[in-house]
Structures are given as C-alpha cells and as structure tokens.
UniProtKB/TrEMBL annotation:
Keyword list, A-Z: Hydrolase
Name of the protein in question: Alpha/beta hydrolase
Disordered: annotated segments: 1-24
Pfam families, per database record: Abhydrolase_1
Highest taxon above the source species: Bacteria
GO biological process: acylglycerol catabolic process
Amino acid sequence: MNGHASQNNRSGSPSAPSPGSSWRVVPTRTIAVGDTEFAYRSYGHPGGVPVVFLHHLAANLDNWDPRVIDGIAAGHHVIAFDNRGVGASGGTTPDTIEAMAADAIAFIDAMGLTEVDLLGFSMGGFIAQVVVAERPELIRRVILAGTGPAGGAGIDKVTRVSYSDSIKAALTGKDPKQNLFFTRSANGKSQAKAFITRLKERTENRDKAVTVTTFRTQLRAIHKWGTQPPADLGTITHPVLVANGEDDRMVPTSNSHDLVERLPNATLRIYQDAGHGGIFQEHRQLVATAVEFLDS
C-alpha cells in the first residue's frame, strides 16, 4: 500500500528517523495505510535495517520502556507504531492476530521499508510470528519476548488473568502491569515501581489511551490464538532471540522453551526472579543481548 506521513515541523521520507536520542521527546507522526491513519514514532541511529516494535495487550506508544527502546535506538533505527484502532491510530481494532499482522505488514510497506527486524512483546510476539511466516523476505531477524506459539500452554487463560489482576490493581491503586508483568518478590515489586515511573518520563504529546473496546477486542484475538491449532514454526528459519522471565503468569514461560524447540534457528534467554515483563525488569541485560543479536 502507498502511504503518506505527516507531523508538525517535519518533512522528508516517512521511514527517516527523527532527530534526537530520547524516547521521551521523539515526535509522533502519522502515515496513511490505505484509508486509515496510523500513529508512529521513528528515531535512533540512521541507516541499517530498522527495528520495528510490536506492542502488547492494551498498550500504546507510551507503554514501551524508555530504557529498552532508547538502548536499542542508540545503535539502530527504531520504529514503533499503534496498530489499527489502537491509541492515536484510526480504524477499528481487529479481533484476530492474523488481521493485526496483516495491518503490521501494510504499515511496513507504507513506510517504504523492504527489510526490517522485529521486536514483538507478548501479543506483539504473536503478531511477529505471523508476519515472518507470511512475508519471510521482509524480515531479517526477530526478537520474541514474553510470548508463545499459537495454541501455547495457558495462553487461553490470558483473559481471566488480565481481568483478575486489573480488578486487584484498581482496588489497591496500582497499575495492572505491576502485578501482571512482575514477580511478587521484594525485588520484583521494586522493579515494578521503577518501570511504572519510567513510563511516565514522557510528559508532553503523549499517546491517546487505549479504549475498553480495544482491550476487549484484543483479548478475544489472544483467546483465539491460544485455542487454535499450532502452526508449523519449522518454516521460520530466520535468526530468532526468545526472551522471558522465569515466572511468566500471562504467557507461561514454558511457551518460550517451546518456541526455541520448534524454531530451527532460535536462542533463549530466561531472566531469574522475573515475570512477563522480564525484558523491562532486566532491561540492561536485554539491551546488551538484543544489540549483540541484531549486529551479529
């Protein structure tokens, strides 16, 4: 699909990174994907293969950990976007992972990109698997974090876990991610608070909140992913880095081991005393590993 990009005080190619080195201030742009405007941010080191970030359930652009995305952007061109119906992007949220993947591919094509790396976290990891299976020539390397294969163990329970922890969070005045992403150890609790604080570092031009309708639609898509027959991951021969915490309550860590066993060219990193958000808790380790993986 053809696309056009727009943003105040900005001109040039939509795929060109914005000046600046901090996720806290990188401007939000828009690009037309067909007849729908998609919101995105593009910055970091110019040249090379861009790294496209695919985010998690109920997430918008401001839910990426600045330490992770800034760490990778220090040496790579990074692009993150709101998929259809999410945050500041227009349209209606798809109710299948496959449709979300089709939109991700359309976004990449609209940006004029012919080769990208993918970093998919949680639901974004589901999307990444479909993207690389559907358009293998478009993808160079893949990072799958806190995620699992179609039909993976416990993925059909994400709805129950998400609602339960969201209610507990509301009753205790916490962000649901504190319970969903982190362990309940003293270290986990401390890391959860630090993560939530980092998410608030951007104070201006923040993204639009994800609606309840989008949240529920995404949950339906995740449930379908968790109950459908497993895909043949043996056809994905790309280099893949799989990362997770050792105690993932949302997408059980056994799924990370399953991915590595079924993907022909995969490497596994498991973080101790960490949960679903292990890549945020151990952001220093993740960035070092990811940069080495992307540059190898």
